[in-house]
Amino acid sequence: MEDTPLAKVRSYVLRGGRLGPGQERALAELGPRFVLPFEPRPLQAQAVFGRSAPLVVEIGFGMGDATAAVAAAAPERDFIGIEVHEAGVGALLKRIGEQQLANLRLLRHDAVEVLGAMIAPDSLAAVHVWFPDPWPKKRHHKRRLIQPPFVALLASRLAPGGYLHCATDWAPYAQQMLEVLQAEPALANRSPGFAPRPAWRPLTKFENRGLLLGHGVWDLVFERRRASFGPGDEAPVVGREHEQAEADAVPGKGPEVVARDPAQ
């Protein structure tokens, strides 16, 4: 596994919090089976899941509502959710037990270190980064997760044709995400700018509340270029997630954010 010298600026702050009895019970009973330890060597996904299947990584799953829904809707795929907060891990473990989600495993560790040490190059069908902390104050922008070095790392872990799907409800961060993703030569945008929300991405409670208040939400879907791609080539559609995506998508709401052509 090659080195990934990324700056050690954390995109999160660990906060203490009380666990509910259901979360504590899930951590104790289901944690040993479904929470993977961080190990500085490549993950053997086939051994973990007992089969060979497309592998999807979600970074920062929060309380896990959307993660559980997507995993339940795609039993033919395997999912690894990465989250640093214990309450979120406990909440998602509880859903794993309730819904019997055999195709989902969790890692409670820094995502940059996990992607750098445990995920092999060219191995992922998809990466989901939904509603990362926007760090709105200018002095905190360096803490934003979507930065050029990390995007380059993510692109290297995607298999050719695999996709990176980001979403945010913070307009300035959406614009930064678009600029950073467009500047990554290994990725190709599937849309002229921002993408409509794919119907298969569930609305979170937080997101739905924001939409009711008139807040905007912006999705971005970029794909790892195939070897034969040139700068002007169109990215291919991969996986069933993108079938009928344009017909079934729900546009985001909110103020227009102008997409820039990276060639200009």
Task: Please outline what is shown here.
The chain has 264 residues and is of the alpha/beta class.
Mind explaining what this structure looks like?
The chain is built from 9 helices and 8 strands. The chain is of the alpha/beta class and 264 residues long. The chain has an 8-stranded mixed sheet, with helices on both faces. The N and C termini lie far apart (36 Å).
Q: Helix coverage percent of residues?
A: 25-40%
Report the sheet-strand fraction.
Answer: 15-25%
**Strand order in space, largest sheet:** 1-4-3-2-5-6-8-7
Instruction: Kindly report the average pLDDT value.
Output: 84
Identify low-pLDDT runs: 1-5, 228-264
Number of helices: 9
Radius of gyration, taken over Cα atoms and rounded to an integer in Å: 18 Å
Tell me the major beta sheet: 8 strands, mixed
Along the chain, the helix and strand elements come as HEHEHEHEHEHEHEHEH
First-residue to last-residue Cα separation: 36 Å
Descriptive tags:
264 residues, alpha/beta, eight-stranded mixed beta sheet, disordered N terminus, disordered C terminus
Furnish the topology, listing elements before pairings:
Blueprint (H helix, E strand, L loop, with lengths): L20 H14 E2 L8 H5 L5 E5 L5 H9 L4 E5 L3 H14 L4 E4 L3 H7 L6 E7 L17 H10 E11 L2 H13 L3 E3 L15 H8 L5 E7 L20 H4 L16
Helix pairs in contact: 1-4, 3-4
